[in-house]
Amino acid sequence: MSSSRVFTNDNCVGCNLCITRCPCEQANVAVIEDGQNKIYIDENACISCGVCLHTCPHGARDYLDDTETFFEALGAGRQISLIVAPAFRANFPQWQKVLGALRAQGARRAFDTSFGADICTWAHLRYTAKTGTSGIVSQPCPAIVNYAERYTPGLLSKMSPVHSPAMCTAIYMRKYKKIEGEYAFISPCIAKKDEFSDPNCGNLVQYNVTFRKLREYIEARGINIQSYEPAGYDNEQHGLGAVYSMPGGLKQNVLKHAPGVWVHQVEGQPHASRFLDEYAHAEGGDNPFLVDILSCQHGCNIGSGACNSEDDSLWADKTMFETARDAEATARRRKPCGPDFRQFDRELTLPDFYRRYAAKGRKTAALGKREMENAFRALKKYEEADRHKDCRSCGYASCEQMARAVGREINHPGNCVEYFKSILREQKEELETVNETRVQRAQTLTQGIHTILNAIEESFDKTVSTQHDVESISGKIQHITDTSARLSDLVERLEGEIAKYAHMSDNIVNISAQTNILALNASVEAARAGQHGKGFAIVAEQIKLLSDKSRQSATDALRNNENIAPILNSVEQVSETVLTESQTVVENLKNILAAVNALRELQNSVAQEATRIIREEEAQKAIRPAG
Questions:
Q1: Nearest to 24, CA basis, from 363, 299, 371
Q2: Region label for 164, one of left (φ > 0), alpha (ψ between -120 and 50) or beta (otherwise)
Q3: How far apart (Å, rounded) are the C-alpha atoms in residues 541 and 525?
Q4: 107-140 burial code (b ≥16 CB/10 A, e <16)
């Protein structure tokens, strides 16, 4: 057996209307989900009044009842009898055919709750007459009972001990008609499930089948109501109890049997809950005979689980008018109106229709001053004026209520418009500060970039000068290289010439030796010639001297050649070293020149980027608003 409950579906946009209309401050819990405000329901705080179902323009609230489970049980052959609310007539124009369809699905018996409403009226009158009690609060409405038990437990002593018409019908069926099996209430109210599940109600009714879900079930399965035979009820003729579902229905019944008593009438949320809050603390003074109070403004005919909307109020009222007229016609034929209460006195036992109440303890302690102060500060409401904006955008009637919700952690500061305004103001101030800092940094950056540009220009000039110097050095080194090459050629030629000279010196030495021999022979021959050879001897002596000098000169030349040769070798080696080193220097200069060219290109790129940054910053300054 499922439980009826209101829940939030995926359509929620966090508009807070459900909070605005909800009579229970703690029933709605606002959370941030995927960056969006969403409102969920605390089932333990919800009184199932269904106000949010009619309030939400996005269809974000729905509820569960026992319709599916009921039809599954019928299909499984379970013995189930129906208790049908008086509002059934005002929600299904062809209600008799719908009743016929339910019987065809397996429903055993069907009792009109209007008869149970007559019992309820009888029980109220007999209880007040017996006890002399006045000022009691009627409880046909389970949402009112939920509120009293959870939020105004001090009021429970003033709650009427008489069961609701639905429960009076169930008790009558079980105890006096001996109808076995399970009971299903065909209902205009989602809160009826709470009543039926209450241990103080004896678990007599197992299913709460609301009109709306019943109609959705019929439409979803394509059930043709027109194809079923009309069906009626199995209970005795009802009286004016049929108008219980309209506002003031109980009042009208009581006044019919007890003219002149004061019955105070209250309908609709949040008025009903506010009345209960005040009535719970009311002391002394005149009390009404009875308080006829309903959670729904238009009564059960347009209840939380009804098919009708507020636009159907005229049709619902017409139906109730015709029902009351028929009851009056019956009353004129046999009095009193409807069942004879004296017969009830004889056949029914009054305490059988009594119930008890239990405080559920949902009334939480008030937040202390420190907790409220912390909540207001979390909302960024520091000044007294800020704490009384009461714009209601959060859904609550006052900033104080919102602060309580934040303090109880059932709402969050982000759901407050003024909080966001404070955040925006702070962000604006932070942005202004950041903007000022940014401007200062931009100015510093611009100055730095100008310094860099100046340095780049100076470096560029020096780079160009360095390039020229490197090119000049490269040219001179190349000239040295060329000179070294020519010097190497000259040394090589010189070595050739010296070699020739050495060869000539060798020949002179040879000639000198031969001349010396010849002079020696001439001296010998002159000696032999005596006086006649004396002149020839002188000539021979001179030739010998000349030969000796020639040989000495040739020898000295050869010796000089031997000394020059190592020097020429050293010159040649130095020339080769200079040539090799010059070539290395040339290659290094080429690399330096390439690096200088690359540096110049990099300097150009840096200068261009710096110029672009400066232009962009100047453009931003031009479009940045003042202040």
A1: 363
A2: beta
A3: 12
A4: bbbbbbbbbbbbbbbbbbbbbbeeeeeebbbbbb
Residue 428 within any structural domain of the chain: yes
Task: Give the contacts of 312 (CB within 8 A, at least 6 positions apart).
Answer: 302
Which residue ranges in the chain fall short of pLDDT 50?
A: 1-4, 626-627
CB contact at 8 A, 85 and 187: yes
CB atoms within 10 A of CB 395: 23
Q: Are residues 282 and 209 in the same domain?
A: yes
Distance, in Å, from the CA atom of 182 to the CA atom of 478, rounded to the nearest integer, reads 119
By DSSP bridging, strand 207-210 and strand 182-187 are: parallel
- The whole-number pLDDT of residue 2 equals 36
Residue 384 domain boundaries = 369-415
Neighbours of 600 (CB within 10 A): 16
CATH of the domain at 508: 1.10.287.950
**In the block, residue with structure tokens 């009193």:** 336
pLDDT of residue 107: 96
User: Are 431 and 340 in a shared domain?
Assistant: no
> 324 exposed, middle or buried (CB, 10 Å; 0-12, 13-18, 19+)?
middle
- CA proximity to 296, closest of 199, 192, 208: 192
Q: Are residues 219 and 340 in the same domain?
A: yes
Burial of 312: CB neighbours in 10 Å, binned 0-12, 13-18, 19+: middle
DSSP state of 366: P
- Give this prediction's pTM: 0.70
- CB atoms < 10 A from the CB of 346, how many? 8
Q: Is residue 38 part of a domain?
A: no
Residues ≥6 apart with Cβ < 8 Å to 266? 272, 275, 291, 292, 293, 294
